[in-house]
Write a structure and sequence with these properties.
The strands form four sheets. The chain has a seven-stranded parallel beta sheet. The protein has two domains: about 10-235 and about 410-420, Aldehyde Dehydrogenase, Chain A, domain 1; about 240-385, Aldehyde Dehydrogenase, Chain A, domain 2, CATH 3.40.309. α6 (about 140-150) packs parallel to α7 (about 165-180). α6 links the parallel β3 and β4 (about 155). It has 14 helices and 16 strands. It has helices spanning about 5-30, 35-50, 55-70, 75-80, 85-100, 140-150, 165-180, 195-200, 220-225, 250-260, 280-295, 305, 335-345, 360-370; strands at about 105-110, 120-125, 130-135, 155, 185-190, 210-215, 240-245, 270-275, 300, 315, 330-335, 350-355, 375, 395-400, 405, 415-420. It is an alpha/beta fold.
Length: about 425
């Protein structure tokens, strides 16, 4: 590292220290802010996004063009791009989060002790949440809004491919905060592309950050999980399966599989592997494979799958462990429910998995025994989304087993404390 780089590095660390201290101070304010103030802030932010939609889309076009020139994939460009419809969805998402019940102060449990003590478990904010993300500039709004609703301050470090888009959306969030009398520092966007900023956040900013949430590709999430010195809500990848059971209705299976794979191929809930029960393969496999191929989805299959259509490419062992995030799917025939669950246990990522069947007993076993954050029965895996769960959005999907699992919405962005009410009791 030369002198110039050392100076830049030092400046970044100093900047991040200031951001961390400001966030910690703001967190104390928003933790006790009236629910009405948080609601107003998000409503005003939604209005600002609509008012400034033309400007946001214009700067987003600059981000997309720069990413294209840098060789971004089609899937990456899709995640980056904002359209009027997508921006309207961002604004509606803010309003939906604003309309949610305030999670702070919820009494989660109450119990009385024999000595007369009355104990309550009460929801409290986590504090300061650091969000590190790539592409999708809508995460700027989703993450900032969800954290604010849960009484937290947020430090956002957007992708180096979307600085203009994220900044424009962030300005709208700040406008909402200021209009409601909340500190602007409650939602901060790191204003530098210097990668040292990420390292500083992972180190916790001298105790300022309580939780880190990564949103992005496997390399980003792996780095965060490896280096973070604070708790992490994340999933490494979404190797998502759809299992078409022997008693699946063919038309339903076609509908679910096509949506699960092709609605949006670049989201983490997109199906990456199709498993077809050998018992129904004679009637179901060829129509399913043809449907996918005709929809311009590449199919990589085992010998049985290759045998039903010459357009199917042979699958390698790596295909069963690959998150494509593209119009590609791996497909194989399995010997029933147990074999399907064994395949998922070996190759899955504990994200989202689906069974299509009219057999309620088989569905109950699948839902009980598949160890994923989200399991679906006769429903597309693309419902793996906090908004679809009624959470008003999500900051991400977590596949760990501590605290938050599945879509991380406002309730999952709180912790709790115990309130103990006595009448002079002492412990003998």
């Amino acid at each position: 590292m030369n002198a110039s780089q050392e100076a830049t590095h030092s400046e970044t660390l100093a900047l991040m220290g200031e951001i961390g201290r400001a966030a910690r101070k703001a967190a104390r304010a928003v933790a006790h802010a009236p629910a009405e103030a948080k609601t107003k802030a998000l409503q005003k932010a939604a209005a600002a996004i609509r008012d400034q939609s033309a400007e946001i889309i214009a700067v987003n076009a600059d981000d997309v063009e720069e990413a294209r020139e840098d060789g971004a994939t089609v899937a990456a460009l899709d995640r980056l791009a904002l359209t009027p419809a997508r921006l309207e969805a961002v604004a509606r998402g803010l309003e939906e989060i604003a309309a949610l019940p305030d999670p702070v102060g919820r009494v989660l449990a109450t119990f009385d002790r024999p000595n007369g003590l009355k104990i309550e478990r009460v929801a409290t904010p986590l504090g300061v949440i650091g969000v590190i993300y790539e592409s999708r500039p809508n995460v700027t709004a989703d993450a900032g809004a969800l954290c604010l609703k849960a009484g937290n301050a947020t430090i956002l470090r957007g992708g180096s491919d979307s600085p203009r888009s994220s900044t424009a959306i962030h300005h709208c969030l700040v406008a909402g905060l200021e209009a409601s009398g909340l500190p602007a520092e409650a939602i901060q966007l790191v204003p530098t592309r210097d990668r040292a900023a990420v390292g500083a956040m992972l180190a916790g900013l001298d105790g300022a950050i309580d939780v880190i949430v990564p949103r992005g590709g496997k390399s980003l999430v792996a780095r965060v999980q490896h280096e973070a010195r604070v708790p992490v809500f994340a999933h490494l990848e979404g190797i998502v399966h759809v299992f078409v059971h022997a008693k699946a209705d063919l038309e339903m299976a076609k509908t679910v599989v096509l949506n699960a794979k092709m609605r949006r191929t670049g989201v983490c809930g997109a199906a990456e592997t199709l498993l077809v029960d050998r018992a129904c393969a004679p009637t179901h496999l060829q129509p399913l494979v043809k449907m996918l191929l005709d929809a311009q989805c590449e199919v990589r299959g085992d010998a049985a799958t290759q045998g039903v259509d010459p357009r199917v490419a042979p699958a390698s062992e790596d295909d069963w462990d690959t998150e494509y995030l593209d119009a590609i799917i791996a497909a194989r025939v399995v010997d029933g429910l147990d074999a399907a669950m064994e395949h998922i246990a070996k190759h899955g990522s504990h994200h989202t998995d689906c069974i299509v069947t009219s057999d309620e007993a088989a569905a109950r076993r699948f839902l009980a025994e598949v160890d994923s954050a989200i399991v679906t029965h006769n429903a597309s895996t693309q419902f793996a989304d906090g908004g679809e769960f009624g959470f008003g959005g999500e900051i991400g999907i977590a596949t760990g087993k501590m605290h938050a699992r599945g879509p991380v919405g406002v309730e999952q962005l709180t912790s709790f404390k115990y309130r103990v009410h006595g009448s002079g009791q002492t412990r003998p």
